[in-house]
């Protein structure tokens, strides 16, 4: 199949590379010529495990190419995937659809034969109708079917998720699109019953409902963690017991410093707004957002408390800046709110992240960025684990103890062994543990 992907950001690039890897012929289109040049040379502009070698391999095999001009790629395509960003619109929290609309109009100009236009971007319910109207208005002769096919990839795990989806949601309003979608996903589903065909609106809403539900699970366990601390229970035991009920499930019950990333914060805001716009207030989603915002500030307060109520002039060492491990993405990361709050209280911040330092330098000012976890700890009054990168699981705590001014650890992911640290003389504070 000939596939054209419009937008070479995270979703577009991962989808394009993975579809090429299973044998389709893919062109990824992006307006940014410098990005197209870099990608054509095999350079991926962000960190995602396994993606760069996959891009290079498929360029070499002649299945993957990049272009700043969509004329031919769209004219030749069996399917065009729209995978442009839908960031939060300033002011009202709605999803910004300008890039989706621009992509729809541009695609309309170049389609030739019957083409399935697939929206992969996360878009509010009803956007597929707008995309279809725009294409038909721009080019009344366009022979298209517009499909909603939301993406459920997780950053840091995207290739694995793409290869082994638990479901593929496809919202179609026209039966003609069905065989094209089946052909597109044929190499991935390998005979399994993974394709769920729904209406376009149901597919669009499913994406937001899924992300909001997961975010709600995280906010729920974070609140339960606080209650555990105040009642002498242990959130790890509570989460285990909860998750063993198959109706609840064990995932997304790990308490932490609040969820971040490019999806949960943006999508919960947009869904809450959709609820307001459609006379269906989503009180649980609104609360999830409020709980998460409060959580980040509460984490800064927790650090200040362990430091005796005052961090003015004190050095705080931060391990992990990315919103989760295996990514260099800091969008809406809890580390930002926590560091800003600590700086406001007068703390001096040193930080280390295995991948996130370069993007952090443009977001977090007045931070001493270090090259390893030991350099960050020198003369620190407190070490704060924000992102649970694997490498932090093998830290040498005796060495850290010697380097720090005061051996204190705030472990916002319950990654470390509290008994071991306390036996070494650290003051330790985790999440949701008995005091
Ligand atoms: C999320 C969804 O999990 C994907 O299914 C979805 O496709 C994606 O958004 C998207 O819409 O594109 P992602 O943002 O990559 O994926 O990250 P998650 O693994 O979901 O983590 C989000 C945040 O929740 C992170 O800050 C993480 O630390 C936090 N989290 C997650 C917890 O604090 N506890 C948990 O138990 C799970």
TrEMBL record:
<dbReference type="InterPro" id="IPR036220">
    <property type="entry name" value="UDP-Glc/GDP-Man_DH_C_sf"/>
</dbReference>
<dbReference type="InterPro" id="IPR036291">
    <property type="entry name" value="NAD(P)-bd_dom_sf"/>
</dbReference>
<dbReference type="Pfam" id="PF00984">
    <property type="entry name" value="UDPG_MGDP_dh"/>
</dbReference>
<dbReference type="InterPro" id="IPR014026">
    <property type="entry name" value="UDP-Glc/GDP-Man_DH_dimer"/>
</dbReference>
<dbReference type="Pfam" id="PF03720">
    <property type="entry name" value="UDPG_MGDP_dh_C"/>
</dbReference>
<dbReference type="InterPro" id="IPR017476">
    <property type="entry name" value="UDP-Glc/GDP-Man"/>
</dbReference>
<dbReference type="InterPro" id="IPR001732">
    <property type="entry name" value="UDP-Glc/GDP-Man_DH_N"/>
</dbReference>
<comment type="pathway">
    <text>Nucleotide-sugar biosynthesis; UDP-alpha-D-glucuronate biosynthesis; UDP-alpha-D-glucuronate from UDP-alpha-D-glucose: step 1/1.</text>
</comment>
<comment type="similarity">
    <text>Belongs to the UDP-glucose/GDP-mannose dehydrogenase family.</text>
</comment>
<dbReference type="InterPro" id="IPR014027">
    <property type="entry name" value="UDP-Glc/GDP-Man_DH_C"/>
</dbReference>
<dbReference type="Pfam" id="PF03721">
    <property type="entry name" value="UDPG_MGDP_dh_N"/>
</dbReference>
<protein>
    <recommendedName>
        <fullName>UDP-glucose 6-dehydrogenase</fullName>
        <ecNumber>1.1.1.22</ecNumber>
    </recommendedName>
</protein>
<dbReference type="InterPro" id="IPR008927">
    <property type="entry name" value="6-PGluconate_DH-like_C_sf"/>
</dbReference>
<dbReference type="InterPro" id="IPR028357">
    <property type="entry name" value="UDPglc_DH_bac"/>
</dbReference>
<feature type="domain" description="UDP-glucose/GDP-mannose dehydrogenase C-terminal">
    <location>
        <begin position="317"/>
        <end position="418"/>
    </location>
</feature>
<keyword id="KW-0520">NAD</keyword>
<keyword id="KW-0560">Oxidoreductase</keyword>
């Amino acid at each position: 199949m000939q596939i054209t992907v419009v937008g070479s950001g995270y979703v577009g690039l991962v989808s394009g590379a993975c579809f090429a890897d299973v044998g389709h012929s893919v062109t990824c289109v992006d307006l940014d010529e410098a990005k197209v040049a870099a990608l054509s040379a095999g350079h991926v502009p962000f960190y995602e495990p396994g993606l760069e070698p996959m891009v290079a391999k498929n360029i070499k095999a002649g299945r993957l190419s990049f272009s700043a001009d969509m004329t031919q790629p769209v004219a030749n395509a069996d399917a065009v995937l729209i995978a442009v960003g839908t960031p939060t619109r300033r002011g009202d929290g709605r999803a910004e659809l300008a890039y989706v609309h621009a992509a729809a109009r541009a695609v309309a100009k170049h389609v030739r034969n019957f083409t399935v236009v697939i929206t992969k971007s996360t878009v509010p319910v009803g956007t597929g109708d707008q995309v279809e109207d725009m294409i038909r208005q721009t080019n009344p002769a366009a022979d298209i079917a517009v499909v909603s096919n939301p993406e459920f990839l997780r950053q840091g795990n995207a290739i694995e998720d793409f290869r082994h989806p638990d479901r593929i949601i496809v919202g179609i309003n026209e039966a003609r699109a069905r065989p094209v979608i089946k052909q597109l996903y044929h190499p991935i589903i390998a005979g399994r019953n993974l394709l769920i065909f729904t209406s376009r609106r149901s597919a669009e809403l499913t994406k937001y409902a899924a992300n909001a539900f997961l975010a709600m699970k995280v906010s729920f366990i974070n609140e339960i963690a606080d209650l555990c601390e105040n009642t002498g229970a242990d959130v790890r035991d509570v989460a285990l017991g909860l998750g063993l009920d198959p109706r609840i499930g064990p995932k997304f019950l790990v308490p932490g410093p609040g969820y971040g990333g490019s999806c949960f914060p943006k999508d919960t805001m947009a869904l809450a707004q959709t609820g307001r716009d459609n006379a269906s207030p989503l009180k649980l989603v609104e609360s999830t957002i409020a709980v998460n915002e409060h959580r980040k500030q509460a984490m800064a307060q927790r650090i200040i408390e362990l430091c005796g109520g005052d961090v003015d002039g004190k050095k705080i060492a931060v391990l992990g800046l990315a919103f989760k491990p295996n990514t260099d993405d800091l969008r809406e990361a809890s580390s930002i709110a926590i560091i800003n709050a600590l700086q406001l209280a007068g703390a001096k911040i040193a930080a280390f992240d295995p991948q996130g330092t370069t993007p952090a330098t443009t977001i977090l000012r007045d931070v001493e960025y270090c090259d390893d976890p030991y350099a960050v700890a020198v003369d620190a009054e407190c070490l704060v684990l924000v992102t649970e990168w694997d490498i932090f699981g093998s830290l040498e705590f005796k060495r850290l103890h010697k380097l720090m001014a005061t051996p204190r650890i705030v472990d916002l992911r319950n990654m470390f062994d509290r008994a071991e640290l306390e036996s070494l003389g650290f003051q330790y504070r985790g999440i949701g543990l008995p005091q």
